[in-house]
Write a structure and sequence with these properties.
The protein is of the alpha+beta class and 184 residues long. It has a single domain, classed as Archaeosine Trna-guanine Transglycosylase, Chain: A, domain 4, CATH 2.30.130. The chain is 28% helix and 31% strand. The chain is built from 6 helices and 7 strands; from the N terminus they run βαββααβααβββα. Strands 1, 2, 3, 4, 5, 6 and 7 form a 7-stranded mixed sheet that branches. The longest helix has 16 residues, at 166-181.
């Protein structure tokens, strides 16, 4: 299974059910083509670079300190969840992004900055169903995984239980799809 590199604070929010969407635009290495969802099921690979309380919604910013305290030793990483893509939509509508604020942890200023980065490309809004692994997977980082790239090959399979039960997820998924159905 492939892994998607994502901020550790976001991985934690996904595992807590506090976040159900990813907003992706692509990083430095993906500037031309933008972010591409290459897999419909993937491990969540927590990263610790570029995180800042100033980029998070106020009610979640305090969690960053605890997450940083749990950071694995240098050169290793602990994967504790995986996700399945349920719905994908590319949007350029900032109003719709505001309506999605309760489904992710980034603050409005950061979302706007991401929209302004590579402005010709839309934002990928990815509705995820997240699963907590039966057992965490410890991996040792490889040099080719470094840098601002989204996908890394891990070659492991994983199973687990959904973070949100079927009823909870169905309700949230319906709300998110409703917002996305009217987005420009």
């Amino acid at each position: 299974m492939q892994a998607l590199k994502e901020w550790a604070v976001v991985c934690r929010a996904l595992e807590e059910g506090r976040q159900v969407v990813l907003l992706r635009k692509g990083g430095i290495l993906e500037y031309r083509q933008g972010f591409e969802v290459k897999h419909d099921k993937f491990l969540l690979f927590p990263t610790f670079e570029h995180q800042s309380k100033g980029l998070l919604q106020g009610d979640y910013a305090g969690n960053l300190d605890d997450i940083l305290k749990d950071q694995p030793a240098s050169g290793s990483n602990k994967i504790t969840s995986y996700a399945e893509v349920i719905h994908l939509r590319e949007i350029s509508d900032r109003t719709a992004l505001k309506l999605l604020a309760k489904y992710h942890v980034w603050n409005e200023s950061y979302v706007n900055a991401r929209m302004d980065y590579n402005p010709k490309k839309p934002m990928s809004v990815i509705l995820l169903r997240v699963f907590k692994l039966d057992r965490p997977i410890m991996v040792y980082s490889k040099p080719e995984w470094a840098g601002c790239k989204s996908w890394i090959p891990l070659g492991v399979e994983a199973g687990g239980l959904p973070v949100l039960n079927d009823l909870q997820f169905s309700k949230v998924a319906s709300e998110v799809k409703g917002v996305l159905s009217v987005a420009a």
